[in-house]
Amino acid sequence: MREFTVAEAKAMIPEVRERAEVIVKLRANLAELSLALRTGGAGQSGGIAEQKALEAHLGEAIGWFNGHGIEVKGIAPLLIDFPAVLDGEDVQLCWLEGEETLGWYHRTELGFAGRRRLK
Q: Which among 110, 83, 80 has a CA at the least distance from the CA of 97?
């Protein structure tokens, strides 16, 4: 498992934000198409083939994070963690969709509820 320094994780945030926008768009398109398919309103939105394609694209977009050692904890909203060590303790540098910068961390065993501001 890769461990990030705070500087390494912060340096990745511009690309993280760009890739997050792709996930947000795919997520919304998939939600709309899935609803249309469930309610019989498909047509202009597409069908099952388009739904499967959106699911595959979403999987690929999420895979980029995993491939770079970044853990995806949720996709609605997008929540990611960068494994790290701060003051000798295992932590996760935590970024939530919509945040401009990387400014939070939490102890690995506490999860999101233990979120604290980076110093």
A: 80
The domain segmentation of the chain, as residue ranges, is 6-117
Per DSSP, the residues of 18-80 read HHHHHHHHHHHHHHHHHHHHHHT--SSS--HHHHHHHHHHHHHHHHHHHHTTPEEEEETTEEE
Residue pair 96/105 in contact by the 8 Å Cβ criterion: no
End-to-end CA distance of the chain: 24
Which residue, among 55, 49, 52, 46, has the nearest Cα to 26 in the 3D structure?
55
The number of residues making up the chain comes to: 119
How many other C-beta atoms are found inside a 10 Å radius of the C-beta of residue 12? Answer: 21
Q: pTM for the complete prediction? A: 0.91
> pLDDT, tens digit, for every residue of 36-84?
888 887 666 688 899 999 999 999 999 999 999 999 999 999 999 999 9
